[in-house]
Design a protein that fits this description.
With 207 residues, the chain is mostly helical. The protein has two domains: 43-166, Four Helix Bundle (Hemerythrin (Met), subunit A); 168-201, no CATH class. It is built from five helices and no strands. α1 (2-75) runs antiparallel to α4 (137-158) and α3 (106-126) packs antiparallel against α4 (137-158). The longest helix is centred in the N-terminal third of the chain and has 74 residues, at 2-75.
Length: 207
């Protein structure tokens, strides 16, 4: 009888040991699988983020090239040669625009759409096909620049960068210098803002 009990006990012990090994192996396998998935997801996120940087860079470069080409074309009085000079930047920009839409988050897509359609209006205005007409060319160009700042901020947020890169509405690059008030008057056609006037000093401007 004792030998039977001992035999059963050894089988029970072995069974518990086997079950423990199986459970331990299952837990270890599950942990490894979860860790592998997390590592793969992190690698994919890093790849997407790095590629977005490159795509955003290309988009912004082509957008600025198109703006410059449109403005140069308008200044050159719309000759056939200047119209052709706009076409290449136009094609490059809208190729990049399509790529951005496939990889960007919704806030970036919304911002680049406004940017793209304002640039399209600017380009169409050159051929008298724009909705707003050539008399609004300079106004549209200013709004294109505003859309650029909005797009950059959306891209910065998408890439995890803190803060806005947008300048203030009445930006004065000479603030804190003796030219600040003069710049303010000439640029904005108004009396200098209080903070645009340099502090009084008993000394002339330094070299």
């Amino acid at each position: 009888m004792d030998s039977l009990v001992e035999a059963v006990s050894s089988y029970v012990t072995a069974g518990f040991g086997l079950a423990g090994s199986l459970i331990g192996g299952a837990i270890a396998g599950t942990v490894s699988l979860v860790a592998a998935r997390q590592a793969r997801k992190a690698a994919e996120s890093s790849w997407i983020r790095d590629n977005r940087r490159e795509i955003y860079d290309r988009f912004l470069t082509h957008a600025q090239n198109l703006l410059i080409a449109c403005e140069e074309c308008m200044r050159a009085r719309l000759t056939e040669g200047t119209r052709e000079a706009v076409q290449r930047p136009f094609v490059d920009f809208f190729n990049a625009y399509g790529v951005v839409q496939t990889v960007a988050q919704r806030p970036v897509v919304n911002a680049v759409r406004v940017y793209a359609y304002r640039l399209l209006e600017l380009k169409e205005t050159l051929d008298s096909r724009g909705v707003l007409g050539q008399e609004n060319f300079q106004h549209v160009a200013r709004l294109v620049r505003r859309a650029r700042h909005d797009t950059i901020d959306a891209m910065r947020t998408d890439l995890g960068l803190a803060g806005s890169a947008k300048p203030p509405e009445r930006y004065n690059p000479f603030l804190g210098t003796e030219l600040a008030a003069e710049y303010e008057r000439r640029k904005y056609g108004a009396d200098a803002a209080p903070d645009a006037v340099p502090p009084a000093s008993g000394h002339g401007p330094s070299g």
